[in-house]
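Reader question, answered in our methods column.
A reader sent in the components of a multi-part assembly and asked whether the whole thing could be modeled at once rather than chain by chain. We filled in our standard form and ran it. Here is what they sent:
COMPLEX SIZE: two components
ENTRIES:
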Amino acid sequence: MSSVSPVSAFRRYVVAFGRFWWEFLIGDTPELLVGAVLAVVVVALFAHHGVARAVTVASLPVLVIAMLGASVRRAQRAAARTQRDAAATPPNPT
Amino acid sequence: MHSATFVLLASVFLASSVEMVEALTIVVAVGVTRGWRSALEGVAAALATLVALVVAIGPALVHYVPLSGLRIAVGGLLLVFGMQWLRKAVLRAVGLKAKHDEDAIFSEHVAELAAQQRPSTGRDSAAFAVAFKGVFLEGLEVVVIVLTLGVADHRLGLAAAAAGAAVVVVAIVGAIVSRQLAGVPENAMKMAVGLMLVSFGTFWSGEGVGVHWPGSELALPVLVAVYGVVAWVTVSVVGRERRAGVEVA
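And here is the structure of the entire assembly that came back:
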């Protein structure tokens, strides 16, 4: 007979389900989710506080481009770090 | 054809084609290793589940969620999704991320499946499960794209038809060449899909929060072009820095 209680089996299922969707939608780029939410909030504030139309229209693409650029830079830095660490690791004597 | 409709159809068709090429690699690996019957049953079950998801969720979203709220949510989701696709395509184009290698994935699946024991009679559950999982997981991304694009533009049927057409085209081409499609320029297609998703995401989240785009839907192809230029410049600059061995601060 299985020793796993229905409650812990359910909890495990919920955690696995949540982890799947987190990986599926966010993965290793949480900065893109946070950035997208912030960008939409900023543009909503512009649109509802009488900021010039040209600024409101241009702000969302500009923020998206900035986020994308920052995320690519982050990946570039991570790759350089990995390369440096690999070069600094002494060769295995075996 | 209306420019927004064309961008919508192209986005769904390309996204669906890319994902189905990846799924086809897994299905062919299952078919040639364990036989086609269980592999095709797995494919049919996965496709039926994906269609059921679109049919169950799509119309409910269209009928019960107000359009402005829907466009903010859908636009935001498309922005995140599109930026992920675009970022990955840029990183692959400059060599900071390994390209999707269909041949390697095919060999990996063949080796894994060949090592497992086959039942002498009845359904091969391992073959069914691998084919189902391959098609379902690749297709889930297409379902999200079909639902978001289709629902926000009230063209769910058209978006679903474009995805279905891509499935049929990839299946026919796969059957004719009877192998995985390693020669397909997946990264270029992913770049194009990323550009279109980010553009739709910008357009709809903007509309949802009260931005009045100049030229209304004509702004969409302009956004695609602007993001396209930015992606091209990013690939050129990062690629040049990488070749020159420039340290990033």
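What stands out: Chain B has a mean pLDDT of 86. Chain B has eight helices and no strands.
Send us your own complexes using the same form.
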